[in-house]
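Task card 7
Instruction: Convert sequence to structure tokens.
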Amino acid sequence: MTDHTAPTELWLVRHGESVANVAAAAAERAGHDRIVVDFRDADVPLSALGEQQAEALGTWLAEHSAANPPPAVWVSPYLRARQTVSIALDRAGQSATPRVDERLRDRELGILDLLTSRGVDALLPDEAARRRWLGKFYYRPPGGESWADVALRVRSVLHDIDSARGPILIAAHDAVVMVFIYVCLGLTEADLAEFALTHTVSNASVTKLVRAPGSTEWMLDLFSHDEHLEASGVTVTEHSGDTHDDVH
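Output:
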């Protein structure tokens, strides 16, 4: 029997700019092999700009959920995501207690972690060749995950979310947002690869998936919406990482 109480909106939020985003961009520009970050991935905090982006996100949240605030807020356990949702909820004046769920963590990069695209080619040429052969969706770096692995986590989250009501706010990472789109829209590997070529999830942006009451078919209503940043005078950043496996 169809469940008419299942949620009809998913608000997928990427965390604000992190200090590792800044370090990775600087390392790529300088042509370095390695990214210098003084934190393990789970402990990477927001940059000062990332905090401003999270505040702007809170302004959007206040405007779009004043009459119907999301009854459930789910968040990655990684610090940058938790900081983003905490700042945004505080700015919006909402008291929801986020549910921290490790299935929403960023994609694990294993031995490729903290390597630039140049670094992967120079230091791990066999892995670079294996990734090109297998493709980004199925390539799993030693000690890490493929996008297909992340899809298993997302499918599990979606199963649990179906027991909730109202719009669900999910604060996570760009790879996780992209995989939600892949799973919910029923895309193929080729579909996702084509979409990812021309679409990037910006920091503190909102991607919205919607469906009719009682339906199991999701539709993409908003992708990487970041006008709230511009409206607040806050710089928009993309820091696309998964192109070269340096997402943070």
